[in-house]
Amino acid sequence: MRSMLRSLLTCAASLLFLLPLKAEDGSRLWLRQEGGANGSATLPSANRRLLPTLRIAADELRQAWRGAPVRLLLEKNDALAPDGFRIRPTASGVTISSATPAGVLYGAYRLLALQAMETSLTGELTESPAYDLRILNHWDNLDRTVERGYAGRSLWDWEELTDSMATDNPSSVTYQRYVAYARANASIGINGTVLNNVNASPQILTRAYLHGVKRLADIFRPYGLRVYLSVNFASPMALGELSTADPLDEDVRHWWKAKADEIYRLIPDFGGFLVKANSEGQPGPCDFGRTHAEGANMLADALAPHRGTVMWRAFVYSPTDADRAKQAYLEFQPLDGQFRPNVIIQVKNGPIDFQPREPYSPLFGAMPRTPLMAELQVTQEYLGHANHLAFLAPMWREFFDLVPPASLRAVAGVANIGTDDNWCGHPFAAANWYAFGRLAWNPALGSEAIANEWLRQTFGTDEAFVAPISQLMLESREAVVDYMMPLGLHHIFAWGHHYGPEPWCDIPGARPDWLPPYYHRADSIGIGFDRTRTGSDAVSQYPPALAELYNDPATCPEHYLLWFHHLPWNYAMKSGRTLWDELCRHYDRGVRQTRGFQQTWDAMKPYVDPDRFADVQARLRIQARDATWWRDACLLYFQTFARQPIPYDLERPIHGLDELKQVQLPIGNHECPDEELLNKYR
Ligand code: GCV
After folding, report:
1. Would you tell me the crossing angle of helices 101-116 and 51-64 to the nearest 10 degrees?
2. Is 544 exposed, middle or buried (0-12, 13-18, 19+ CB in 10 A)?
3. Is 280 a catalytic residue?
4. Structure pTM?
């Protein structure tokens, strides 16, 4: 009898698998609950200004909540940050309270997320964001190209936004997309967005564009999302209004004050400016003999009466020191304590540039009298663009595990969002948008918890799917590190597009620190960048205990080894193998893992709708091929120095070095490689 029952159940389960899964294009992201709701939500009495946000919270619950009635409450709670919330089961239902309407909205999204994940609310749940500012940075140009964007064009339709004759049509596709963007951000607690590229066009500050910005700000406001702009430091000159942009010049100071006043007349809750100054050819205060502090403070003074913020980037590397990894510290650390209170220095997580693995930037912890914020890169500029599956939460966890979250004022993420139907290109790239929001809200969250949350809401709750795919996600970033640049290697990407390998790249006349040999330093003796006390001494920018640890190859974590040391090819690794052998094994492991990812995904067919299944399957195939390309290119090239065989128990390279050196990808900074075109070159 029992066995009959079991076989009936098995039969029913397999019949379920035969039912076609509904087609999905990924456009609903992790917000896929719909219909069948009996939700009811009562609003607190609030003034008109607060109502739109509370109404959204109530509408969301009415549309998707299937539990007991929800009461929304505006209520101060001294134990919580302003946007924190409390979700409390009561005799008559559930109460969501917060001191702010945005907090109530975050609480509503949290409750709905729990429902989607099939996690029951057992008792009271309180949450408080770790930072007041959780912000996306779009590197979107005004012509709608996106620097390092791999998901279509910029969301912002400036042609339409700047058209003074156009009226907003809430049912238009573009308008709906703007709303969906704000909603997705609010659902994970993101509360700020810088609309344009840090390589900023001065045009963004013209009247026409500011009107466009106002239109977006009006759409985003009810979702608690404030707009910010990247500004070009030389705007007063570039717009033809002044002959200088010297931050100590009275006319310049007045120009920025007047500009700030103009912006705030249009957008009373405008957030402020993000500035890339004296970096990669952008203008800045140093062009006028002034410091970064003098430049930032001038803008801060213009924004201060409106309570606006300046986020001033520390991403600088002028040729002042032989080691690029040291330069931001050398330039900014001496300025500690010189910035106005409404300036935050925005520092990339690592000292070079969003590599697959970097140690943390030593600026963190070195400027105790200056607010700092971390800049993370959500877009996968250096992790396979939208073709490779790389879940970035483990990379950001590594950062937060070394840099105490409480030492930061805010967190920014370079967005990976574009006009693609599924928003981020690779169906799994949205997991990085999600992970960024969740970590900016709570940097103590674990990668596994985030992967699970995202999978359950984005695909479904079946453990037979969630468990293996969450494991795949957790391994994915380390796999990328392995097949691209293991053991602390970095920046050996092809010139320009940062997609494929080009460790041999040598362009006569180019800045040395834009060329891979500058970073890997392979020669007949060994490989790696000597940043020890007897080398560039970058180790000394870290606190003494860490400096000590990193300075000695015997204690330096092996995943940073070639970041800090130039070591002989036969250097004995902890495994007892030589460095060359270990390097080969890392590359090999990365390739094998991508093949494993393909198999794991293929077995998931019964659980995933056909479109998303096929999309991920196709991209994993590209990833596996690219991993082989990376392995072959790097190992064959480094072998010309190491002069040793690739261990015979490993898979042999399938390409030739000369053949790989011919690969020229027809892509620039703003495009994702086109598969068909790529194949012609492979
Ligand atoms: C926006 C790297 C990228 C550039 C980017 C720059 C930055 O160099 O390759 O595209 O420019 O970082 O963060 O300013």
Report:
1. 10
2. exposed
3. yes
4. 0.95
Note whether 198 and 98 are same-domain residues: no
Ligand 1 midpoint to CA 198 (Å): 8
Same domain for 216 and 98: no
Residue 597 sits in a domain whose CATH number is 3.90.1330.10
Any ligand 1 atom below 6 A from CB of 199: yes
Higher pLDDT, 221 or 676: 221
Rg from Cα positions in the chain: 26
Cα distances (angstroms) measured from residue 177 to each of 156, 210, 603: 10, 20, 34
Catalytic residue, from 25, 168, 251, 280: name it.
280
Tokens of 208: 């026409």
pLDDT of residue 36: 63
Asked whether 276 lines ligand 1 (CB < 6 A), one says yes
Enumerate residues 6+ apart whose C-beta is below 8 A from 75: 86, 97, 98, 99
Residues 166 and 286 in one domain: yes
Buried residues in 460-481 as b, exposed as e (16+ CB within 10 A): beeeebbeebbebbbbbbbbbb
pLDDT for 16 equals 44
> If you write DSSP's letter for every residue of 504-556 in order, what string do you get?
T---TTS-GGGSHHHHH---SSEES---STTTT-GGGGS-HHHHHHHHSTTTS
Percent of the chain scoring above 90 in pLDDT: 88
> How many domains does one find in the chain?
3
Q: How far apart are CA 244 and CA 238, in angstroms?
A: 9
What is the rounded average pLDDT for all residues in the chain? 93
CB of 198 shorter than 6 A to ligand 1: yes
Check whether residue 206 and residue 346 sit in a common domain.
yes
Q: Band of the pLDDT at 433, cuts 50, 70, 90?
A: very high
pLDDT of residue 1: 38
Average of per-residue pLDDT across 279-296? 97
226-270, pLDDT tens digit by residue?
999 999 999 999 999 999 999 999 999 999 999 999 999 999 999
pLDDT digits (tens, 9 = 90+) for 158-191: 999 999 888 889 999 999 999 999 999 999 999 9
Decide if 353 is catalytic: yes
The CA distance from 337 to 646, in Å, is: 52
**Shared-domain flag, residues 122 and 145:** no
Q: Do 87 and 195 lie in a common domain?
A: no
Residue 15 counted as domain residue: no
Assess if residue 548 is contained within a domain.
no
The stretches of 575-671 forming alpha helices (DSSP H) are: 579-602, 610-642, 657-661
Ligand 1 pocket test, candidate residues 148, 230, 514, 669, most atoms within 8 A of CB: 148
Band (pLDDT 50/70/90 cuts) for residue 19 is low
At 675, is the pLDDT very low, low, confident or very high (cuts 50, 70, 90)? low
Task: Confirm whether 265 is domain-assigned.
Answer: yes
Whether residues 594 and 623 fall in one domain: yes
The ligand 1 atom at the shortest distance from the C-alpha of residue 669 is 10
CATH number, position 398: 3.20.20.80
d(CA 372, CA 312): 9
Exposure on the CB side of residue 517, measured as CA atoms within 13 A: 12
- Tell me how far CA of residue 558 lies from CA of 358, 361, 462, 650, 673, in angstroms: 12, 18, 37, 21, 32
Q: CATH number, domain at 63? A: 3.30.379.10
- How many CA atoms, within 13 angstroms, populate the side-chain half-sphere of residue 160? 15
409 and 371 Cβ atoms separated by less than 8 Å: yes
**9 domain-assigned:** no
Active site includes 632? no
Taking the CA of residue 381 as reference, the ligand 1 atom at the shortest distance is 9
Q: How many CA atoms, within 13 angstroms, populate the side-chain half-sphere of residue 317?
A: 16
Range of the domain at 633: 483-529+566-681
137, 139, 349, best to mutate for ligand 1 pocket (most atoms within 8 Å of CB) = 139
Nearest to 138 by CA among 262, 16, 274: 274
